[in-house]
Amino acid sequence: MKYSRLVVLTVAVAAMIGAGCAKKKVAAQAPPPPAPPAATAERPQPAPQQARNTPSSSTPAPAAQQPSRMPSAQTRARIDTLLGRIEDAYFDYDKHTLRPDAIKALEADSTELRDILKDYPDYKLTVEGHCDERGSAEYNMALGQERADAAKIYLVQVGIPSAQLSTVSYGKEKPACDSHDESCWQKNRRIHIVADSQQR
After folding, report:
1. CB-based burial of residue 162 (10 Å sphere; 0-12 exposed, 13-18 middle, 19+ buried)?
2. 121 is in which domain, residue-wise?
């Protein structure tokens, strides 16, 4: 009897110890509780890093220097010299077609003039058309315009941009010679090239 009580008591103690160990193992295996979400939400965010002051970010790069569209005083003087060398182109009586000698006069320095003008697109020339004293003022204005237009067409063919050439007719209003004979009239039937008056 004593022996069976001792066995029962031993089994009961062993069961209690085993149960206690099992609970401790289960408790030891439980995951830790998660951190409260409020703690992470309230954490201050780092301030955005400010850009360093470098020459490229603090000051804008200067714009590229645009080349001048108008010639300098020295280049204008060169143009005036060329215009002075280009002889007036002369016409036959009551005609507006360029004669061979008129083409030769225009051709002499017009290529050099073209090479200068292409670099200065805002610089303009005026082709003036003139007539002798014979005929009505109205008729000579129209004839002078046809002469100026013929010279402009030739100069454009040489390579001077059309946008840099304007034309005007003075008819018989600005004669180069005042005598009343053919030698004088021939000098008045002409075209003359000048720098645009608004640029002077």
Report:
1. exposed
2. 90-199
